[in-house]
Specification:
With about 550 residues, the protein is mostly helical. The strands form 2 sheets. A two-stranded antiparallel ribbon has the order 1-4. The chain has a two-stranded antiparallel ribbon with strand order 2-3. The protein is globular. InterPro entries: MFS_dom, MFS_sugar_transport-like, MFS_trans_sf, Orgcat_transp/SVOP, Sugar_transporter_CS.
Length: about 550
């Protein structure tokens, strides 16, 4: 009996059907990247805010002050008397009541100058020029509460981490498309609740859940795309990353046009409901169906693929059998049980962690230079487009390992050089740091493809999800690593990034080359990869089996 890849070749490896499915599922990258980076605009620092003194609101109403007049009469004296105080996180430790005058509220304190009056920290009496522009002003995430903004992004990454484990496992057990659709529904519903959260606790809970479901949409759509195309067409795994970058590029435009954080949140969440229409146009992965002993359904889908591609399967494909490998629910032990699987898993986990930590670290480092937030964010996203184009041009010519290793090495060198460049040539530091950003983006995108190609069908979604969970761990650690180490020496994080990337560049050379190779079908296939691959790009010999998987 022919293998699944041979049947797929006869039905069309990347015909009209696969192109349609690829284009539809790729839109998920836009919504996921918007969710991934949304905190930049949801958590914008307010342009202007100040701390209101207790009783000032009532006094303002009685005296008929505008907010500007109230600020001039109650906060300006603090600023004049205490040059080191901004009036944002501290206030005069006084309480105004009906006895205070409207023309000069401080007159009751006699000869005491405002510089001699006691100060108190501000807790919950902030006044914002634009109170609903971001979650910072909505939930008072300023001054002593500023760390809670970082917490909101950490919670999102924890959601990604939970989604990688829970929904990655579910997709291998219950099906790719089912989990994809449920995840899209979850992202949409949780996104709406986040937008109308009555308090910060509710915001965090559903931010976590939205992250979990968001990771489910991204991972399952990626696996579906790579499983329905032939081995020579798996470059689509890189092309789909372009849609992730498009989301990064589009996001600042959305944020620029929509003035409130609730509007931005709804704009990036509601499109997920449209993806539910894919139920009628995107089928279940036939590879997955075969692993679950559902050969008839898989054959039906293959005939439908052939029909849409203008092909016709041979009549003798009347029944389908699967391999004798026992179908079981995946677990972490399956990923480390055999020597080659163990090696691949550990290296890939480290590669995911390193790529995410350095990527987010460099993004945040470029973001602290100031300037126009919308333009800077747009440019930082546009920098990623050449990464995908470079991969597309080289990966099918020289293979996966060399670009994977070299991108890490170049990122390492760029970080090291940037750390020791003098401060008086900022344009050169920014240029070299951007080269590091481009290089680590290439590594980030290649690891997606390599990860999916090094696991058998029964473990592919779970393996990709579990390994990529280290990406989320890197995302959680990145801001703390960057800012804690930068407090010691501004360039110290770059030294750490350089070491991590160099080690990763050497380790990935130990992975087998997967250029032009059929996706492994069983654990035995994975164990045979080094001996079967031979030279880069040499295809594996087909073993004697009755499997279509």
């Amino acid at each position: 009996m022919p293998s699944f890849d041979e049947v797929l070749k006869e039905a069309g490896e990347f015909g009209r059907f696969q192109k349609r499915v690829f284009f539809l599922l790729s839109q998920t990258g836009i919504t996921f990247s918007s969710l991934f980076a949304s905190v930049v605009f949801l958590g914008r620092a307010p342009d202007d805010f100040w701390c209101r003194i207790p009783g000032a609101a009532e006094l303002s109403d009685r005296c008929g002050w505008t907010l500007e007049e109230e600020r001039n009469l109650t906060v300006l004296p603090l600023l004049l008397g205490n040059k080191s105080v901004s009036g944002e996180c501290e206030r005069l430790d006084v309480t105004w009541d009906a006895s205070a005058g409207c023309t000069s509220p401080l007159a009751r304190y006699g000869n005491h100058s405002s510089g001699n009056l006691p100060l108190a920290p501000c807790h919950d009496n902030w006044v914002y020029e634009q109170p609903h522009s971001s979650i910072v002003s909505e939930y008072d995430l300023v001054c002593g509460n500023a760390w809670m903004l970082d917490l909101s992004q950490a919670i999102l990454n924890l959601g990604f981490l939970a989604g990688a484990f829970i929904l990655g496992y579910a997709a291998d057990r219950y099906g790719r498309i089912l989990i994809y659709l449920l995840s899209c529904l979850g992202v949409g519903i949780c996104g709406i609740i986040v937008a109308f959260s009555p308090n910060f606790t509710v915001f965090l809970i559903f931010r976590f859940l939205q992250g979990m479901f968001g990771k489910g949409t991204w991972m399952t759509c990626y696996v579906i795309v790579t499983e329905i195309v032939g081995s020579d067409q798996r470059i689509v795994g890189i092309v789909i990353q372009i849609f992730f970058t498009l989301g990064i590029i589009i996001l600042p435009g959305i944020a620029y046009l929509i003035p409130t954080w609730q509007g931005i949140q709804l704009a990036i969440s509601l499109p997920n409901f449209l993806f539910l229409l894919y139920y009628w146009v995107v089928p279940e992965s036939p590879r997955w169906l075969l692993t679950r002993k559902k050969g008839e359904k898989a054959l039906k889908i293959m005939r439908n693929i052939a029909k849409h591609n203008g092909k016709f399967l041979s009549p003798h494909y009347s029944e389908i059998t699967i391999s004798n490998e026992e179908v079981s629910n995946p677990s972490f032990l399956d990923l480390v049980r055999t020597p080659q699987m163990r090696r691949n898993t550990l290296i890939l986990m480290y590669a995911w962690f390193t790529s995410a930590l350095i990527y987010q670290g460099l993004v945040m480092r470029l973001g602290i230079i100031g300037g126009n937030l919308y333009l800077d964010f747009f440019i930082s996203g546009a920098v990623e487009l050449p990464a995908a184009l470079l991969i597309i041009v080289t990966i099918d010519r020289v293979g996966r390992r060399l670009p994977f290793a070299m991108s890490n090495i170049v990122a390492s060198i760029a970080c090291l050089i940037t750390a020791f460049l003098p401060e008086d040539i900022p344009w050169l530091k920014t240029t070299v740091a951007t080269l590091g950003r481009l290089s680590i983006t290439i590594a980030f995108e290649v690891v997606y493809l390599v990860n999916s190609e090094l696991y058998p069908t029964t473990l592919r979604n779970f393996g990709v999800s579990l390994c990529s969970s280290l990406c989320d761990l890197g995302g959680i650690i990145a801001p703390f690593l960057l800012f804690r180490l930068a407090a010691i020496w501004l360039e110290l994080p770059l030294i750490i990034f350089s070491i991590l990337a160099a080690v990763c560049g050497l380790l990935v050379l130990l992975l087998p080359e997967t250029k032009g190779i059929s996706l492994p079908e069983t654990l035995e296939d994975v164990e045979q990869l080094p001996s079967n691959f031979g030279k880069c790009g040499k295809k594996r010999k087909h073993r004697d089996t009755n499997s279509y998987i």
